[in-house]
Amino acid sequence: KIGGEGLRNRGLVNEEDRISELPEALLLLILSSLPTETVIATSVLSKQWKSLWKLVPNLKFDSKYHYHYTFSDNVFRSLISHKAPVLDSLHLKVEDKDDALDVGILIGIAFSRHMRKFVLKITLLEESFVRFPSAWCSCNDTLEILELKYCILLDFPSLVCLKSLRKLYLYHVRFNDEESVCNLLCGCPSLEDLVVHRHSTTDVESYTIAVPSLQRLTIYDDYYGEGVGGYVINAPSLKYLNIDGFNGLEFCLIEKAPELVEAKISAVFEIANENIMDSLTSAKCLSLHLAPFKIKYPTGKIFYQLLSLELRAYSYEWWNLLWFMLDSSPKLQILKLVDPYQFPKEDCSVGWEWSRPKCVPECLLFHLETFVWTRYEWQREDEKAVATYILKNARCLKKATLSTKPIGSEELEKLGKRREMLNELATQASPSNSCNLVFESE
């Protein structure tokens, strides 16, 4: 009410359906953000809305919101009735074994609708896999994004032909054999982005990724192997590489990647034959989170392009890697150290202690501008020595940040010792006059 008079009486409310007056393109955009079941329900609103849902370009179906004997029928009827010239995306989430049996038919209908993006997620309680219908991949020039998740078996006895596929995401799916992997990846001439999640090598021991057009590659492998199987990566156009969790593999062979810009390597150890470091020499940004393993350092190779390095310690032996990278990266501008674990001195092997380098690395003398050490262990003499050395010799340093673990207010003695140590470090390490030295506590 305004001034005691109702809005209706003042003629300020229009009882007409204003939503229906919106442009059809805007209505379809709104409907695309809703669950498909809700979108179909709008057909009862009015004569105008009766067929509007058939033009919505994005469809999503989840079997848990249906009775198991109606899900496939509902999806089937929706796809048959769909009138949009192009199906932008279709998401199918199946949790019932009976519905999974009809997936092949539903996929065939969707492919015939010139589908651009397809997401299939099958989660079954039983240890069973649903075979993906490979026939629909024999010749397709519209599919651009494909995501396959969980209980799906990929069997490609012959080369696929997915001419427009740019992004492929494989989450814990299973291949029938090594040939199927090659036939899928080699049949995607436009593939730029590949994500692979695995937790077993029981289906394929040698996982070969040979894609000339590939620019981004992410591999998560949380399976601890027994020295059997591994990866072969041949992607000459690769710009971004993320590897996480190569544990106990027999090999990891990466061909040269001359266009590599950024790489993240985590939890890689106990590999009998690997050349990971050798393949990263063209990168500009590196993040190395390496578990204890004998790193194979490149022979005669220098990281000439490297500008930013993040090194996370998993072992008391990480000093060797740190100084190798500093010596091999003459243009390094940003150095970040992360110390997640503290190793008791009695557990350290002989020769682990840090020793002062004979020559100051070129990057410290001329290029390093930012130095960050997260979870700096201020009580350890070796870490204090390393921090002091870097601060003393980094002549172009603009900002240095050392953060330590929190100390409770009840440990006043320890708080005092930490303050004393940090003051001593600030006095001993005489960084450049323009350097901003910051001490933080998590």
Set out the fold topology.
Elements: H1 24-32, H2 36-41, E1 58-62, H3 71-81, E2 89-94, H4 97-100, H5 103-112, E3 117-122, E4 130-131, E5 145-150, E6 152-154, E7 167-171, E8 174-175, H6 178-185, E9 193-198, E10 206-210, E11 216-221, E12 230-234, E13 240-244, E14 251-254, E15 262-266, E16 273-274, E17 285-290, E18 308-313, H7 318-328, E19 334-338, H8 362-366, E20 370-374, H9 381-393, E21 399-404, H10 412-428, E22 436-441
Parallel strand pairs: 1-2, 2-3, 3-5, 4-6, 5-7, 6-8, 7-9, 9-11, 10-12, 11-13, 12-14, 13-15, 14-16, 15-17, 17-18, 18-19, 19-20, 20-21, 21-22
Uncertain residue segments: 1-14, 345-351
Question: What Rg is obtained from the alpha carbons, in whole angstroms?
Answer: 29 Å
Strand order of the largest sheet: 1-2-3-5-7-9-11-13-15-17-18-19-20-21-22
- Main sheet overview: 15 strands, parallel
Helical fraction equals 10-25%
Question: Using DSSP, what is the number of strands?
Answer: 22
Backbone structural class: alpha/beta
Mean pLDDT: 83
Shape assignment: elongated
- Helical run tally: 10
Amino-to-carboxy terminus distance? 54 Å
Question: Percent of residues in beta strands?
Answer: 15-25%
Structure overview:
The protein is an alpha/beta fold. The two termini are 54 Å apart. The strands form 3 sheets. The protein has a 15-stranded parallel beta sheet. A 4-stranded parallel beta sheet has the order 10-12-14-16. The protein contains 10 helices and 22 strands. α3 packs parallel to α5. It is 21% helix and 24% strand. It is elongated. β1, α3 and β2 form a beta-alpha-beta unit. 28% of the residues are buried.
